[in-house]
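Colleagues,

Please find the record for the two-part complex below.
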Amino acid sequence: MSLKYTIAPFSAWLQAVSKPFTVPVTGGPRPGAPRYRGWHINDVEKCIGCGTCSAICQNEAIDMVPVDDPVVGDSGLRPKIDYGRCCWCALCVDVCPSGSLGMSNEYVWADTDADVFRYIPGVDEKPWDDSELGWRREEGFELVDHDRVPMGMLDPDERTQTWAEVVIGYTEEQARVEASRCVDCGLCVAACPAHMHIPDYIGAIRDGDDARAVQIIYDNNAMPEMCGKVCTRRCESVCSIGVQGDPLAIRWLKRYATERFDNLAEVLQPQVERVGEGRTVAVIGGGPSGLTVAYYLAIRGFEVTVHEALPQVGGATFFGIPRYRFPMSSLEKQVDLLKSAGVKFVLNHRVDGDELTRMLAENDAVFMGVGLMKPMALRAPGEDLPGVIPALDMLREQNLGHEVDVGEKVVVVGGGNVAIDASRISRRLGAEVTIAYRRRVVDMPADDEEIEDAEAEGVEIVTQAIPLRVEATEDGKLDFVWGPAEMVQEEEGKRPRPKLIEGVENHLVVDRVIVAIGQGPDLDWLPTEISEKICNKWGYIEVDETGMTAVEGLYAGGDLVNDTADAISAIADGLRAVNGIVDKTRAQHV
Amino acid sequence: MDEIIQRIRDNFGVLREHRQRDDLAEVWIEPRHVLPLLTWLKEHTPFVQLTHLSAVDWLEDGEFQLTYLLTDPVGRRSLMVAVRISREEATAESVHTLWAHAVTYEQEINEMFGIHFPGSPRQGVPFILEGWDDIPPMRRDFDTVEYMNRHHPSRPGREHTDPRRYIGQVVGEKGYLHD
């Protein structure tokens, strides 16, 4: 071995004192560029746990993990990112429907434990949580489509001249485009009282399989064409796309799918176990809850008879909803399906107490969904004057095809959908219409779109107006006297209450005062031994988790039972009773 | 710009064109015209510089698109020359004889899309993917997740909860009645 190889390692030490070739790092690591894609940040208050980030991730780097209990509109899950797989492409940030997810420009983080590189941004605290810099989705650059396909409507001037349906409906192409906006998060399913399989039928529409969409829809809604036209659509209010854009037009898509087929029985052909063969069920009241019970029990082999007091079933969706929103042909189509499933109808027949007792003895189950039929009174002097009429009476007369005369000028008292319907009908009957409502427009329980449509049709809305009295004038008209109110916040968290400003009186001379301030239960016909068991102190009916009342075999649902009093809640009640009756029948088979 | 595009129309034929801005136009031409057109542009017009060469996989159409971005450095305007080639053959003429640096673009596209530029010097030489053992990753039929699972398996302990199922359990979403 030459001497050179012995000395060489030591000569390297000489380099220790020579000028280095490298540039020394000063001031720590170089900061990331302002829009660098570094470690994630998440505004967990804004995040709704829709999981779209996880779904889009091309590397399956994101898991949704529970951090809280789910509530309607928030799954309670939050994204947890595995940085062993993340490639920092930022698709998760760019797609985020709520806009909560971002990336800081921090990129330096060293640790000896590899498992720390998997964390829940915003929940597991990190030094860069408040970073202003880093990657954010650019304004106007959205991977999800924020704009709803607009719905064609009749021109407002044209509408008041006709009873034709105002909403025109999507074309096939429009429906496919609208359906493709869905990110399939499923938050809507939880918000829907009937828990319809919304993302599934939207997916079927998107894929061009309308028959499949209808089959999915009818899985737990036997009146979807009605819901597709007039539903209160709580689903849309929690739609994740709706956080920053227009929510999916879930209602219009359902409408589209159901309107595609004239003969529903042909498309549906449900394959279910006929557990109810040889059993009979009586349904009192042909509204949404009763018809739901009738259909789903009939396809399971039960012999179902629906008893309806009016000449037509449909309940409030028949007599309460104007035909320009829900035409008769749509309702008849739903009824045809029920008939094809074997449901029998007894129309123009009001069930009394004795008959109910007899029904309970003769049938395996009785379902009662008779709704709220007693209109609330105005509770102001003059409420009994002729010309002061309940809105529901007017809607019913109109829908039964009877002559309705509202005169030339009308005031509608109330702010719910019934008030809006009554006012829009009055417009079509040629009257000048004013709505008087106690609170503000934002407080109106009516659907926003309905309010807009009414205003477009020339309905004037007077808010914070408290009815004081109604007086008959000498020339046979009515003087509707109202006082202005101020909104007072009495309790934190509750909605402000209107308080009358004393000493001011406004006069509105009209031909009709139409009262639409709600309705209550009308169950005087029930035998006492039944009503004292099933009614609570407000006169509503209480049921257990199977939909059954305290009377064995007597089930109930709809407005009488739930506190939301809309069609989809009634359908949900009907489904609950169906499950209750089917489960009980199965148990009896064993 | 208008005059140059008119000359391209007349002499080479334009399949489609798009005027993005005053200073940015795009023309689609047939593959056989790429080299003659780019040569003419470089030799006889102010568009002398090749600023970028990129590719797009139009999987559904069975085609790749190559886009040559040419720049007029004096007039500060750009012309995009786009061409669609068969995805199956995936072969295009090299332009490295016009611009030496095209070799690097062609090497990258060769690696990322598997498009071959015969005669280009560094075809088949790894650009950044040393030891790559799959189809070219920028092809849209490349399965990212499958590749990740094969090469970078997740660390143990990962668990994903589906939002719809999770919230559904709480509100009591029922499964399908019909199924």
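The domain at 29-143 of chain A is CATH 3.30.70.3270 (Alpha-Beta Plaits).

Comments are welcome before we finalize the supplementary table.
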